[in-house]
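May I ask for a protein sequence together with how it folds?
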Amino acid sequence: MTRTEAIQKAIDYIEENLKSEITFEDLAGETYFSRSYFMRLFQEAVGMSCMKYINRRRLLWALYEMKAGKKGIEAALEYGYDTYAGFFKAFRQEFGCSPSEYRKRYTIGRPHRLNLQQEGHFMVSNQKLRHILAHWESEDRDVRAVKFSNGMIAEDMWVVTREDGRYILSACTAEAALKRCIALSRLEEKEGLSAALPVKTRDGEDYVTDGDLCFYLTRKRRVVGELENPLDFYGVPENAQAVGQNLAKLHRVLRKFPVSEMYEESDEFAKVLQMLSGVRGAVSLPEDFYREYVDRMGKLAPVLPRQLIHRDPNGSNIILEKGKCTGFLHFELSRINYRIFDLCYAATAVLSELYMKHEEKEAPAEKIWFPIYHNIIRGYESVEVLSEEERKALPYMVYTIQIICVSSFNAYDKYERLARANEKMLLWLWGHREGLEYNFKNVVAKKGNP
């Protein structure tokens, strides 16, 4: 049994015994480690002490059961608190707000069980956040986790409210990747697009390290994903086209970045082919789909232009200024990839929003989404001309993205809703595949691209 497997066994034991007394001796016995060695390994694997983790899980489960209708005192007693006042105090200490405030801020769902073997993971306590924010002299400010438009709560980003505005505190485990993201953001800003630049610490640094984690602070930028209804934005043709235009400008910027030193090229299509068997088991598509996809994409992939791209231009990463798209956030996923990947991803991210918000309703009508898809591409082509092969590959790049999403989300328990939504999207897209054909006639495009 590896150390990861041993700690996972302890995590599973905790989850199954939250309403009972849990001792360190019990947990160490589950892993066959000494108590001191177990406690150190747990801290390293999870990001907080075992006791803090147990306390957090009990608080979250009690809150979830209260939302489901259980009285506060009953839930508190069941999870080991002598009084509701004791539960209330523990909750405020852990999350920095009262249970009622937490319910107003976030969507309360069934607590996701941590699975170390499925995902890289870390946890940061409210006390640790205060300690980290002291580097920016903001330890006494209001802090709350970032909530995405699909209702999910970020585990590595927090909104910090200061007197001069709101900021985002982010955490990551890869220092080298963080340095690349900062460098890309600075280049983006230098070339005239909006970016999120790091706020210097009191010691003049871009970020701080604490154990295996790096923390950095940026001024909060308004993004499309914060709009009450993103379709109000994308539904305006000029706005969707502006997203495409700025992706083209971003691609020009990214071509100036010294990728050879920091990024490795890989065969993306080969990776997708490996995912197909799992997708076959999840999505009831006819064999015609798989045959056509493998044949067409197999011929097109080798000749499609590749470069460093953003790779995640969803609404939460698109900067808004005065209601217009002006730049992009978060380059953690940037890779050398097909450049049309960004165009198709920006469009399918909008479709994903529709499916997440209307899970029980029928698929969005063609008139809602297809114009957005086409306008993003038209906007791109007003700055950068696509090759004939790229235009032909657009429908198959949309399928590629859906195959990646279905395969990736199905690998994580906490992304079950996203997996189901993307499975439905893939079925719907194949059923309306004629709408994915891009009509590039009469597109006004600038020539002589650098």
User: Anything to note?
Assistant: Confidence is low (pLDDT under 50) at residues 442-450. Residues 3-105 form a domain with the Arc Repressor Mutant, subunit A fold (CATH 1.10.10.60). The two ends are 55 Å apart (CA to CA).
